[in-house]
Amino acid sequence: MTAHTLSVQQLSAGYGDRLILQGLNLDVLPGRVTAIVGANACGKSTLLRAMSRLLAPRGGQVLLDGKAVHRMAPRKLAQVLGLLPQSPVAPEGITVADLVSRGRHPHHGILSRWNRADDEAVAAALEATRTTDLAERAVDELSGGQRQRVWIAMALAQETDLLLLDEPTTFLDIAHQVEVLDLLCDLNQRRGTTIVMVLHDLNLAARYADHLVAMAAGRLHVSGSPDEVLTAANVRAVFGLDSRIIPDPVSGRPMMLPIGRHRMAGA
Amino acid sequence: MTAEAITAGRLRRARYRSRVIWTALVLLAAGFAVTLMLGQSFTPPQDVLRVLAGQEVPGASFTVGQLRLPRAVLAILAGLSFGLGGAAFQIMLRNPLASPDIIGISSGASAAAVFAIVVMGLDGAAVSVFAVVAGLGVAIAIYALSFRGGVAGTRLILVGIGVQAMMQSFISYTLSRAPSWDLQEAIRWLAGSLNGAQLAQAVPVLLSLLVFGGLLVMRTRDLEALRLGDDAASALGTDVGRTRAVVVVAAVGLIAVATAVVGPISFVAFLAGPIAARIVGPNGSALLPAALVGAALVLAGDYAGQFLLPGRYPVGVVTGALGAPYLIYLIIHVNRTGASL
Ligand SMILES: Nc1ncnc2c1ncn2[C@@H]1O[C@H](COP(=O)(O)OP(=O)(O)OP(=O)(O)O)[C@@H](O)[C@H]1O
Ligand SMILES: [Mg+2]
């Protein structure tokens, strides 16, 4: 499999007159797992939108293998780059199998017929997200966590070499969060899929990502290995929160312990 | 689950949907046959066939050839146009209230048509062109008026309802200034009617169905993708902006050309989509079935208005009586349950 390069150069983007991203640079490591962290409303979703062509850049560009994504044919791009949005909408009554099948959309033109490979991709995606048993259920009757796994299955069925996920672990209990992150790492290791995900849990981000990107107010504050990025100074700068960083005894990666105003030992 | 089970589920859904489409086609054909044979008098099928074949049959040539056939053909073509155009809007905007006959686009086309005919003395294709341009103008105006850093569905619908009221009063005003004020004409432009239908009028409607309807049906998959939200649709390779543009132009074209001939037949565009969605369920797109439901509504509504009700009513009055309760129901429930298309 060819490793695709995705690079964001001097990107400015926003809504209406408001610029949210201002001159942001980011090189996604091919074949690696990148996690984006940052405070609410700092522009993480906006960045993923601009990277996947939904939002036209006001300045700068996003390059996939050297070509500007917003000038690529949408379907061609969607065969290589997948995105799980933060709040997708499930049409009323749609079944899980049908929704996951929508992931095959970019692999078909107006006339091409659905084939065996499509069904296999859908079955594999259901299997990987442990939603096989839900296949014939209506999506709007599922729990938030089940629904989230179904959306991830849809993104997996798309079988892209690059996968962007906006908060894939929201609504999931801790066991399912770990399961989803393990699943994404499997995908990364087995198929070499490049993963970029927005995560709110800094500790899980530090544990699972090869490359950690911290955003603040529409800019890239710092990026690098978890050891470089997850420091008390950076947490302070990005979230305005005091913290202590200790080595995670399970993984050896850095682990952040927040310091609030209450329940502090010796305080 | 295995890929076999996925295949089986997919085939089951596709079969269900094509059964719905074929059943609707058969029912429509049967309805068409009945309206040709049975009006105030009965015409035997062999006479109907001879008239259709172009032979001269005393009596039948007039009742079937001049009265019933143009009416039935126009009913079906207009119904297909309204059903398709209405459902396309509802699916694209993810809201059953966002139908062209609720948000003023149909009335806009109607207002343009009545202005072109009554004030400017135009007829034929010129009226259609006028109606399409006005329909697009109204669509753009609604969009611009409801735009505030993005278009929210509810605001668009409220603005549309306001525009609808303006267009209705413009129609009434234009009609009241007409040299020969005629109740039949007034009803056509306010509620829709097939009275005085002629076969030649079917030509523009048929052409618009072939062009605009074809464009819409070819976009079915992209429209379905839009139901997942703009972000997901785009991630699945749908060009959201272009799909929207094509759908608006094609749907407005369908609605406006049909409206320029038969008037804005009340609530057909509004009802067809939800009825089709209810029948098709989660088994696939309701777009094409909505066209067939629209045709059935107009054909049956017109027949009922002529022969089944005490007194004679234009089709728009009959479909209006069907649609109004549903509109009230939706307005009460839409905030609670969200959209259904
Ligand atoms: N469709 C939109 N129209 C206008 N403004 C928007 C839109 N979407 C987001 N914004 C604004 O852009 C800014 C950044 O939003 P964004 O969704 O990128 O934040 P985020 O970092 O993903 O936050 P969160 O962690 O809460 O998901 C916010 O101030 C938000 O209000
Ligand atoms: Mg976000």
UniProtKB/TrEMBL annotation, chain A:
This protein's superkingdom?
A: Bacteria
A UniProt-annotated Pfam family: ABC_tran
Record-level GO BP terms: iron ion transport
Q: Which family does it belong to?
A: Belongs to the ABC transporter superfamily.
Annotated ABC transporter domain ranges read: 6-242
Q: Which InterPro entries match?
A: AAA+_ATPase (IPR003593), ABC_transporter-like_ATP-bd (IPR003439), ABC_transporter-like_CS (IPR017871), P-loop_NTPase (IPR027417), Siderophore_ABC-ATPase (IPR051535)
Query: Membrane topology for this entry?
Result: Peripheral membrane protein
- Name-wise, this protein is ABC transporter ATP-binding protein
Q: Which GO terms describe its cellular component?
A: plasma membrane
Query: Which species is the source of this protein?
Result: Paracoccus siganidrum
Classification via PROSITE patterns:
ABC_TRANSPORTER_1, ABC_TRANSPORTER_2
TrEMBL record, chain B:
Q: Which residues cross the membrane?
A: 20-42, 72-93, 102-120, 126-145, 157-176, 196-218, 245-272, 284-301, 313-332
Q: Does the keyword Transmembrane apply?
A: yes
**Taxonomic source organism:** Paracoccus siganidrum
**Coiled-coil intervals in this record?**
none
Q: Which GO terms describe its cellular component?
A: plasma membrane
- Provide the primary localization: membrane
MF (Gene Ontology): transmembrane transporter activity
Short name of one Pfam family for this protein?
FecCD
What PANTHER family does the annotation carry?
FERRIC ENTEROBACTIN TRANSPORT SYSTEM PERMEASE PROTEIN, FERRIC ENTEROBACTIN TRANSPORT SYSTEM PERMEASE PROTEIN FEPG
Write down what this protein is called. Iron ABC transporter permease
User: What are the leading ranks of the lineage?
Assistant: Bacteria, Pseudomonadati, Pseudomonadota, Alphaproteobacteria, Rhodobacterales
Q: Which family does it belong to?
A: Belongs to the binding-protein-dependent transport system permease family. FecCD subfamily.
Question: What membrane topology term does the record carry?
Answer: Multi-pass membrane protein
This protein's record includes keyword Transport:
yes
